[in-house]
Specification:
The chain is an alpha/beta fold. 56% of the residues lie in helices and 11% in strands. It has 13 helices and 6 strands. It has a 6-stranded parallel beta sheet with strand order 2-1-3-4-5-6, sandwiched between helices.
Amino acid sequence: MIHSSVIREQKVIIADSFPFFRQGLSDFLKEHHKLKNIVELNSGIEVINLLEKEPFHLVIADMRMAPCNGIETTAYIKEKYPKTKIIGMSPFDDEFYFLQMQRKGADGFLLKSTDKSEVSKAIEMILNGEKYFTNNFKHVFIQNTYYPFYHTISPNSHIQERYRQIIYLLCKNKKTDEISKLLNISDRTIDADRCKLNKLFNCSNGSAIIRYGFQIDILGDTLLKQKFESVLDSTIKMINEYNFK
């Protein structure tokens, strides 16, 4: 547990395109946590430029700032400066932003309507190495609807990776037999995996699985695109050539 005297020395960036919000949050942190090192910035680009010059312990990032919004900023920081903590803040009670920030590695997520006591609690927990996500989205964890196996299966598990591949291909409108050929495993194994995913997502027809895939923008996953697009393209080409004959 970091002592309050140490928290006061933590360096914090507040990045938001609205000066009024930045100033209000900054004043609160200075008054309540006695933070001495707070920098207010207008965009994600400014955050990245500053981090290249000096390290900071915590970045509080607005989802809508531009250029380089909170999601893009988080992805960059977590890749380049993984020890830097990040809290995303949004005016919208929308699971999309929450899920995107979780996927990019954010340490916390709060609504801008959050009361001061929750903001204070979140900052203390995150600076102490914990995670904090606003109560509005706790049901996302409990229901296992949108973000299930990332928390129940090891990040390095080949099973999790296969699930990701199946979700990707389902979002590409692929059927079981097509998926089995692309993954080079049996139809029976694919059917078994789809049944497990249906249970995780509490659905019977796979609609929630596909919805989840679009929620986390799985079709934009570079590694999955590289793995499957060339195969899919060559298959389409072969079919077209066959039909042309």
